[in-house]
Amino acid sequence: MVKSIIQSTTQTLYDQDYYLWLMTTINQLRTGQFLSVDLDNLLEELETMGRSHKRTIESLLIKLLEHLLKLKCWDNERERNQGYWKGEIRTFRRDIKKALKDSPSLKPYILEIFDQSYQDARKEASDRSQLSIDIFPLIPIGSLEQILDENWFPEYNHNHQAKPD
User: Fold this and answer.
1) 68 near 89, Cβ under 8 Å?
2) How far apart are CA 56 and CA 95, in angstroms?
3) Which of 32, 104, 124, 164 has the most CB atoms less than 10 A away?
4) Gap between the Cα atoms of 47 and 39, Å rounded
């Protein structure tokens, strides 16, 4: 009964003041008050954190690929924007590497999502450039290893005709 009263109070705390719930839970764990911990909400939060890390990696990869595609294929804006795009590419690479260093078990996940992320990046690049999606190669412009290599940039594709839709 005491456990259910404590659990009920803690669950209410979770709904009313998330930060206070978090600090209370941390304190309970540190002081060994395991029976007082709101286990259901703690487990939910931990699962949410895991999903959030995966979404972050995916978002960074799509942005990285989008900028690499713009650098390779967007003729009209290349000269003016290539410095900005390269800066963004370096930032996304760095952020992905940091995320993978913190969570090396996500390395297989990035391989799993690479092809779909590339296709999503093609769509983003097409939308942002207002160029036909056909301007952007259907097959990835580099391997995952190349894409993440801080010294690799795609060869400029100046042989195609960029036609706006």
Assistant:
1) yes
2) 9
3) 124
4) 12
3-state secondary structure the chain: CHHHHHHHHHHHHHHHCHHHHHHHHHHHHHCCCHHHCCHHHHHHHHHHHHHHHHHHHHHHHHHHHHHHHHHHHCHHHHHHHHHHHHHHHHHHHHHHHHHHHHCHHHHHHHHHHHHHHHHHHHHHHHHHHCECHHHCCCCCCCCHHHHHCCCCCCCCCCCCCCCEC
pTM: 0.80
Tokens representing 84 are 């900005």
Please give the radius of gyration of the chain, using alpha carbons only, rounded to the nearest integer.
Answer: 23
Closest Cα to residue 125, out of 77, 80, 92? Answer: 77
Confidence of residue 143 (pLDDT cuts 50, 70, 90): very high
Contact 23, 15 (CB under 8 A): no
What is the average per-residue pLDDT within 64-88?
94
